[in-house]
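Board notes, transcribed. Complex of a protein with heme C.
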Amino acid sequence: MRLAAALLLALAACSSGRPRAGMSDGERTYRAKCTSCHRVYEPAEQTPAQWSQTLDKMEALKKVTLAAEERAQILQYLSGDAQAAAPAPLR
Ligand code: HEC
């Protein structure tokens, strides 16, 4: 029983943090938080700077409440997953 739990933990540790085939954590968070009210906007529709403003606007209008981590994940996804490999810049 303990061994199974340890194995599960190890598996979970290995599978987190890296982009996998399919959806990244950022995309998953984005879809969960941002697409209940309107269509799924594509990352390419805005520049990273615009996305940051859009997130500000959605939060300011009380459309969505984001934890700092969720915001960072969503911004990474929307800014292009290529940048997701690097640590989030402090803006
Ligand atoms: C509770 C509903 C709701 C949620 C959740 C929501 N939005 Fe919106 N969003 C709106 C409404 C309403 C508008 C259009 C009206 C407006 O511009 O004020 C809008 C407009 C937009 C637009 C169009 C451009 C613009 O600035 O008007 C973008 C892009 C957008 N949302 C992105 C997001 C993102 C990213 C998230 C997640 C962080 C999000 N939305 C979550 C309601 C929502």
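The chain has a mean pLDDT of 81. The pocket of heme C is lined by residues 33-34, 36-38, 41, 54-55, 57-58, 61, 63-64, 74 (CB under 6 Å).
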